[in-house]
Amino acid sequence: MTHHDSRRDSGSPERILRVGLGFWDANTLLSAVELDVFGELAERPLDGEELRLRTGLHPRGAQDFLDALVALGFLDRDASGRYANTPDTARFLVRGAPEYIGGMLEMATHQLYPSWARLTEALRTGEPQRDEAGQNHMFDHMYADDDQRRTFQRAMTSLSSRPIAKIAERFPWPKYRTVADIGCSEGALLTGVLRRHAHLSGTGFDLPPVRPHFEEYVTSAGLTGRLSFRAGDFFADPLPRADVLVFGHVLHDWDLPTKRMLLKKAYEALPADGAVIVFETLIDDERRENDFGLLMSLNMLVETKGGFDYTGADCRAWLAEAGFRDSRVEHLDGPDSMVVGTK
Ligand SMILES: C[S@@+](CC[C@H](N)C(=O)[O-])C[C@H]1O[C@@H](n2cnc3c(N)ncnc32)[C@H](O)[C@@H]1O
């Protein structure tokens, strides 16, 4: 990927304006998700007035809003003026669809957008811009609220589903019998991997408030017998023992001493020849290409006390320090890659 070169020096201010006003596009899409425009169109196309009434829009902005979604490529409109989902919005933005990605966008609306409005302050001070993020246990605070907890779990599942499918497909699972996912959230990784590999059993490790979400998700996937939940706090408790330990989008939440502590605990919990899988929106080693990974790291700046994203080379160095005998980096999907370390 060398897309950054084509983004520079085009001789036109268009890209500068487009990025600078990127919140126009973003808010239009986020409002459409919040108002469930795509869900209302799941069954059949609707004319503008019916769609307006169903989504509760005031007449003043309705037509511009819906036609902006057409112009942005998120809706189609036929010759008779009826609106319909595009193949992508039908697939990824209808709530309840198996590949629904809107959980992440719901979290963007409620949580990330207000923090990002204060990015300059975060850059000047190094401080997160969510009131509760300054506390040691930001998750305790977020999980105290049922809605926030559910939105966050859904966001994680939606963001992780594609890299998880690749991990299920590409990692040499036949060599191992047990897997534990540290910071498992609803259990999307374990479910994806165990569905594909019938010989495996798994443990999800996460904070106690996550248990009901995990159990609901795993039950609906029909995997209750092979999967269990272990409630714990990885600061205070040892990690569960398993042949493979997974950290998905977990290390980037924390500062460097915590990252190192978690990898050390993983080493201790693994048998000889056991493996750790770390998957994230890894930054490329040159720190030039993976803009999503770099922006994710700024997201950790505004959202967490010490979190940051990192390169594959960074992670391999930490794995070596923790004692792992070898490691490798493999691209998964989109901005996500995994680092695999062997004890
Ligand atoms: C960013 S989410 C990643 C979820 C999932 N692994 C994925 O890739 O989609 C981080 C997870 O770490 C969990 N977590 C945070 N602090 C924890 C702690 N002290 N002990 C155990 N789990 C924790 C959170 O509850 C959350 O599920």
TrEMBL record:
Coiled coil: none annotated. Keywords: Methyltransferase, S-adenosyl-L-methionine, Transferase. The keyword Transferase applies. It comes from the Bacteria. Residues 21-94 form the O-methyltransferase dimerisation domain. It holds the Pfam family Dimerisation. Residues 116-325 form the O-methyltransferase C-terminal domain. This is Acetylserotonin O-methyltransferase.
